[in-house]
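Form 7-S
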Amino acid sequence: MNKKFSTLCTSALLMVGAVFGTANAQEDATVDFAKLTGDYYYITDGSHYLEAEEIEVAAKKATYTSVKATQTLNKDLDFNLFKITKVDRGAGVVYFTLTNKETGAAVSFIQDAATKKASFITTADAKDAVYTNFFDMSSDVFTATDKKVSKTNKIALLPKFGVVSDNDQQLVVNGSQLFIQWNNPLNKNFYFESVSEVSLTAKKLNESLKNGFLFETDKIENEDNIFASQKIKAFNVTKAIDIREGYTVPKGLYFAISYPEELAEVDVNVIDNYDDFTKCTFIALDPVNTVGTPKDSDKAAGKDFGFKTVSGDDFNFYTETRTNKYDAERDVQKNQISVYNAVFSVSTNKNNDDAYALTVENFRYLKDADKPHASVTAQVGKDKVDGETVLLTATGSKQYIFTFGDNTLVKPLDLLSESGASVYTIRFVSGKDVEKDPKTEKGKYLGAAYVNSTVELTAQGAAVAELSTPQFQFVISDVNVADKEITFTNRETGLNFVCQLAVTDEENQYVIVSSKKAEFKTAYLNDDEEIKYDSKKFLDKKIELASATVDKFAGFANRDENAGYTYIKFALDNEYDDNLYVQVKKDASNYKLGKATEELSDAALFELVKSEEPTLIRNSYVYKKDGVAETKVKGDTVAYYTYAIKWVNPELTKAYYLDGVSSNLVVNTKAENAKQYIVKNYKDGSVYITEELVTADNLLLSNQAIATDKKGNLSANVNVYTIKGNGPDDVKSYLMAEEFGASLSAEPQHIAFKAKDGGYLSMDENAEGMIAIKTAADEDLTFWLDTADAESTLPSFFISKGIKDSQERMFMYYAKDSSEYYINNKHYTFEDGKVKMVFKAGTLTNSDTLATTVNNKAVNVSVKKDLDGTLGGLNNFKFQIFKPNDAEDLYVLRCKANNLYVVNNNGHLTLSNNIKNALQVYAESQSAPTDNENVEVATVKVLAGNGNVTIAGAAGKKVVVSNILGQVVANTVVSSDNAVIAAPAGVVVVAVEGEAAVKAIVK
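Output:
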């Protein structure tokens, strides 16, 4: 059996079934046996048709085509169609064969060896059975003057096994059965019916490429063929469209190469109004210009004219029936193009079921320069002009020269990288300009967005689309090389679409000719400046692919360790003056987010505690290796950090973390136990703060985000991935860092820190941080400052003092790690449990490593520990030194490890999270200390306490204590090196014999 119908795979061949699948039209035919054309015919006796059937003969191991009678035609296949072929048998004997169109084989019969009688083939025929496929078409009807068979001149069908006449038998239909009987008398009951023409509708044509078609023809390159150089969409005008009296758009079939958005939908195949028609560009016969230089007679007959594209509003629409009088005002003339020239018909038949003819029934062309255009039925044909085969107009019979073509599809391998993932941004270049259609996809970039609480592939404008982020990037995750299908996967969300792309004349621009995902969304602003979404079909959209730069953290906040505290601000934009801020309110025994406030002084300050490790989103991708596609499973990576949002409250000892907009803040001892949030950065500087939802491989951000309206009412419902307009709910979120003044210059220097309330930052004999009651800086109060993180917005410093006769120095640090290791050690903690600022001997090997000793063992300390024995915690040694504001030259010191501030705790130093309590100091530049700098040199020290002052190192000396008004509180000679003298609360002046007077603050 000819298997062609079971193996059809191209759109062109599939059209055959679509055209002929519903009817086998036929009409009476006259067949000239002297001039057989090779056409197919139905063979009938007027009430029955011959129908081929395939018989598999087991003994012969072969399949033969037999024949039977049927009253109805097979409407799906071609078992009823036969081609007549003349066969010269020699000795003046001429026979014929009947070849069935469906089986591709000639009808055969078997002959009985004894009786010589012909019979129909059966599956049980013997191995040595004799077959024939010859017929005598009742030659006595072929007279010298008439060899034509018709309904009025029928024939008999006689199976023939030899050249003698004694075995003449014939086919006879009796009832509904076909028999073979002796031909006496001759039964001339058969005649032929031909297949009729089938005209294709716009819908049938457009099914070829799902929303359009191409017509190719042999020996003409597609670029030289106006019907194949670009995809055409066919439209039917089913009823003439009236324009004005005498002017219409005629009923018929039109070929458009461009058309408005409203006609671009797959299921739109009809134009029913003049406005839509004028927005199209059509293919038409050229009424003036010919191809080559034809004979005058051919040109006058309408032959050899060419083709052109015409805008729908440039036609002459005069279609009134002509009279002999020339209507110069209205009739088509000179260079005008009649709308009739764009009205085509496409036809085929069973003899040409893989080829199609194009006809223009009313071709108007310039025959005489001073007369109206002549009219003729023109065929689209091809001929050689100057040695080259070209398309041109012809007259006479139809020319079945066109076949359906496929788009020039992109080969998936051509888009693949050989070195890694192939990542692209996708910009739409089809559609109207946004000024004409706000819903257009033109100029917008495909990405992902929440649409009605569902993540959708969505096209958004350049103001929103940050092309460096995975939200607007697509990786080729799979290809089907055979079917030329490409899978584009959104790197952030995992949403994908599978498509075929057709090449265009523009570099890197393609047309989506098939898509397994039907639609995407376009974001637009309505008249009220509210963001809305419209649905668009992928099919037929033109896109531009651009290679994307990949940064796995792009689009997500990757906050620096120096980022510090932040406010959460709401505003229409980052320059807007009317801002709202998140605040925390007491709710019974709990704390929760309250109504957003306009006052920055009431705003809550937050610390975004970054996760130790990023979360990874992994997509597979395909790449090209040795000319084939290989898959790298989970090879493409997107990464983001999560954050616990900690409320900074200096009055509370417990750590409170955000647990949702409508929930109470929760207490956690560790940030990793708190609810984790993702912070997405947008192109305009705003952020989207949302709870992390854990998924298998892809990030589907919750559309429950921290949001507010203009009135400050917090909500947890906002469209993610989009920047909204200026409507009542279109308020964006921002992280606003706690504002500070200038930092101390990021350079190595020597500084003495003079406290605003008196005394200097110092180190006592126990290597603990303290405030020394001195009125002037000296070498003992001078610190070395080494820079760290010098390139940061807020640089850090190592603060140290030299050790006599040693390369080491004493480095100030926050002893939290030590206090947790050495429980209740008074060197590291105060009585109330607060951790002290102490000094530790070490050597700064570089800005990232401090060499010191721990438990009498030499170690290196860095920011993070490693497997080589390096300990973490270096940030406890780093301090940011900056002005709390620029109003005066006072600085505060903040530990980088925790963003806590250095404070005075009864003369000793610790940390606090409240900048209002921070120790404020003047930074006095000093000369480099001498080589004899010695932390062990003892001087008189005054330590302020609760209701007293302690005088150290003054045994045998006179001490006078007075208040700031000069009133003497105590006047005595101390007898020990740690004398305690009662004093009133407040600032007192202590004068020790032989020493400069100093101030102290008594609690």
